[in-house]
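Exercise 7b. Backbone tokens:
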């Protein structure tokens, strides 16, 4: 099928057209983005340098922090620059690249959250077999499979995007490129493509969320047989994971599992899960995890003492 494409660039309308609000967007997103990068980098460095954080859970947390940083980087820097730009222009190739990155790292975050839930299930429900089941080689294979799965998902999304014909106009009523806002600009019937988006992204979000919530319900139910100290430690860890799951999947399901309709809060929901959640994740994992907090204190104490 020949694809007609008369558009070589798009104009992003962003979050607001008001100059004062644009400046507020600039400072708020800049602070959130810097906090995301610094916070996740701190977690990665702490886990890498600490001898006490060598369990599979922290191995997966490194990849979650990396995916968080990349996921936020796929949208935040352009939003920061565009907040101070008179005309928010993005080339066709840059737009398609953003679609690919957004889905690659977003899907990777989903898969890592699933792996972390599996790790907690094995650790709490099958503690005696934990060292055998979650050995280093198995964790490496699981992470590689997660990256391969994310790449396949994002490739499917970009193939759909590249097959869309654009005849004009080229105004995207959003702050980033994604399939939903792009579908509104195509000069073809998008009903079938929207079904593919819902059955792909929507199905991944919904099924993963159900799987994770059921997993943590089973884990929490099994804690009744543990000691008070064991329950407290496991409950603290699982609560952090559940908070992250709800914060990420709530907006994600809202965006990707519905018919092609537009709501006024769409942009703010997208901002929350692309910029807000990656910022909150390192805070949640450090504030509710005693081992991570102690490792950070020890690391900085060593650095300060060495100087």
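Sequence design result:
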């Amino acid at each position: 099928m020949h694809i007609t494409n008369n558009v070589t660039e798009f104009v992003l309308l962003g979050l607001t057209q008001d100059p004062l609000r644009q400046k507020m967007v600039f400072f708020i997103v800049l602070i959130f983005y810097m906090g995301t990068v610094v916070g996740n980098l701190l977690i990665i460095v702490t886990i890498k340098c600490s001898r006490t954080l060598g369990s599979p859970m922290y191995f997966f947390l490194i990849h979650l922090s990396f995916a968080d940083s990349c996921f936020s980087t796929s949208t935040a820097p352009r939003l920061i620059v565009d907040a101070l730009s008179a005309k928010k222009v993005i080339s066709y190739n840059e737009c398609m690249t953003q679609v690919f990155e957004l889905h690659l790292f977003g899907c990777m975050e989903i898969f890592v959250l699933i792996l972390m839930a599996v790790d907690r299930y094995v650790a709490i429900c099958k503690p005696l077999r934990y060292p055998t089941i979650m050995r280093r080689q198995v964790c490496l294979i699981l992470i590689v499979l997660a990256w391969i799965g994310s790449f396949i998902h994002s490739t499917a999304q970009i193939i759909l995007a590249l097959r869309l014909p654009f005849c004009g106009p080229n105004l995207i009523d959003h702050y980033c490129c994604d399939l939903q806002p792009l579908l509104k600009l195509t000069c073809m019937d998008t009903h079938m493509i929207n079904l593919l988006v819902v059955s792909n992204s929507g199905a991944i979000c919904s099924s993963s969320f159900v799987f994770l919530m059921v997993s943590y319900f089973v884990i929490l139910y099994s804690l009744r047989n543990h000691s008070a100290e064991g329950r407290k430690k496991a409950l603290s860890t699982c609560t952090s994971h559940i908070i992250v799951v709800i914060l990420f999947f709530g907006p994600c399901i809202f965006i990707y599992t519905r018919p092609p309709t537009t709501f006024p809060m769409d942009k703010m929901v997208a901002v929350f899960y692309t910029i807000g959640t990656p910022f909150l994740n390192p805070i949640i994992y450090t504030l509710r995890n005693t081992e991570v907090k102690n490792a950070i204190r020890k690391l900085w104490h060593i650095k300060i003492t060495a100087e």
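Instructor comment: The first strand starts at residue 9 and ends at 12. The mean pLDDT is 86.
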